[in-house]
Amino acid sequence: MRSDGEATRQRILDAARTEFADFGLAGARVDRIAAAASASKERLYAYFGDKKALFQVVLQLNQREVAEANPIDIDDLPGFVGGVFDHTISHPEHIRMLHWARLEGVSPSLSDDDRSRLFPERQLILDAQADGKLDDQWEPEDLITMLFGLAFAWASAPSTFTGPADAQSKAVTARRRVSAVRAAQKLVQPGY
Q1: 70, 49 Cβ separation under 8 angstroms
Q2: How many Å apart are CA 97 and CA 106, to the nearest integer?
Q3: Residue 62 DSSP SS3
Q4: How many Å apart are CA 74 and CA 62, to the nearest integer?
Q5: Which one, of 46, 64, 63, 47, lies nearest residue 13 by Cα?
Q6: For residue 159, what pLDDT band results from cuts at 50, 70 and 90?
Q7: I want to staple 48 with a disulfide (CB 3.0 to 4.6 A). Which of 34, 54, 122, 159 is the partner?
Q8: pLDDT one-digit tens code per residue, 37-76
């Protein structure tokens, strides 16, 4: 059973996720977060220290969810891209938080477990390249960055190219997912 303190902390996190996704760090208001969580600002500060620390905690939670839902498989990087694409579609607030973090100069920090789930060891990629499983023309960091770019592409593209979000059909989303996975296949394919 969850204690009152744990329940309050969770309500604050839930309210902060919404507030930060909508307004970013600079535009978010602690009083709105506290009110939405039915908590006092003092309680929020007691749990998280300050607004920036709370923002960091929310970023870490979002990234942990992505990492746990989509552990990277060096033998199926296109499948990883498809999984991250799906997560991004079902959790658009996560990509908004990443955009806000980048705009506001906040560097998300990952736990070692989350980092290893999302980013394979450099040596794993080099070994797969040496074994002919992955294109050896890519630096490992560049390859992983481009794979994330493919997974995030539709969520990050200007609406000029994607159309309004409410006009997206399941068929369009499915086609875009296939495109991202197919692009990843070509990206990692040796000798392409």
Answers
A1: no
A2: 10
A3: helix
A4: 22
A5: 47
A6: low
A7: 54
A8: 999 999 999 999 999 999 999 998 998 888 888 888 899 9
